[in-house]
Amino acid sequence: PLVAIGVFLMGASFALGNIPLNIETAAVQRRVGRAILPQFHAGFSIGAVLGSLVGAAMAALGITPLTQFAWIAVLALVIRLYAIPQVIIETGAQMPPAPDERAERPTRAAGIRDALGAWRERRTILIGVVILSAALSEGAANNWLAIAVVDGFHRAEAVGGVVFGVFVGSMTLARLFGTRLIDTYGRVSVLRVSGLVSLGGLLVFGIAPSFWLAGVGVVAWGLGAALAVPIGISAASDEPARAAARVSVVSSFSSIASLSAPPLLGLLAQQIGVRHALLLICLAMIASASVAGTVRPVWSAGRGAAAEPGPELVPSGPLVELATDCSEMFGDSTVRV
Asked: Which of the chain's termini has less CB crowding within 10 Å, N or C?
């Protein structure tokens, strides 16, 4: 019972922090004017890499989970209490807010109506499907990858922790350096290619005859899984006035994945083994690639990094005419409005 209470409190605190953190990072992205949200998510991945390596080291040294968790809890608390007051734009930023972010805070009733209304938006629900599939892919690795290595290839627990570290490390690299791909090719193309790479990697891991070939599949799986959640959060945050409600909705899909995937995969693993049970996640990756078009940016009056390549997103009017005149005046120089 004590473990259950602790897990419940940890999960609740993560959910309460996850939504405002993503909204803040989306606001920073709009001010910068290009895709940087995946790099914030890389911070989460770096923490996961360090955690997996520490866990592997503790397993090799025979240190109990109670000792590990106690020290990590204290360290994480100190870091969070130091960082939180400095990360909220409204309290410490030198940058003025975007025009569409200066509106007064809505009333509680209006906020509830806004949140419920987001559940009726087709685009938001489909973005939720993207988040759901990404959460299934990443969550399956979080819960089962190390066990699959131990049971499927008869390796030590420390080796399973290292392989999970490789998975999260490949995700970290993709999140740090994949932003240029999003700016160059757009969210839709990157999301589709990511889904195919992740699908291929998971298939290789699930059916590979050797441990080292399976490791190659783990790398591809991590690279492909890295950008789906940041892209989905960015798409849900395109319109700042509705960002909070929409991010809450799409984040709920991640929670649904966290609730359903572990027991479902566990039941299947009892029948066919953990490594082969993970192949079930391939269905989610196919679903994500099929609805990738829904993450196409929505034009908003606010500043933003939402511009996707393509003339259909360029507005017409006096500002465009002014930009054209400036382009002719300054030659090849790029003029952004």
From this structure: N
Q: 45 is written with which tokens?
A: 């991945």
> Running DSSP on this structure, what letter comes out for residue 142?
I
Q: Rounded distance, CA 291 to CA 74, Å?
A: 42
pLDDT tens for each residue of 6-27: 889 988 888 788 888 888 888 8
Provide the 8-state DSSP code for 99. G
Residue corresponding to tokens 């949200």: 37
Question: CB 244: neighbour CB atoms within 10 A?
Answer: 20
pLDDT (mean) for 201-213:
93
**pLDDT given for residue 44 in this prediction:** 82
Distance CA 95, CA 88 (A): 12
Count of beta carbons in the 10 Å neighbourhood of residue 207: 13
93: left (phi over 0), alpha (psi -120 to 50) or beta: beta
Provide the whole-model pTM: 0.73
User: What contacts 28, CB < 8 A, 6 or more positions away?
Assistant: 36, 40, 89
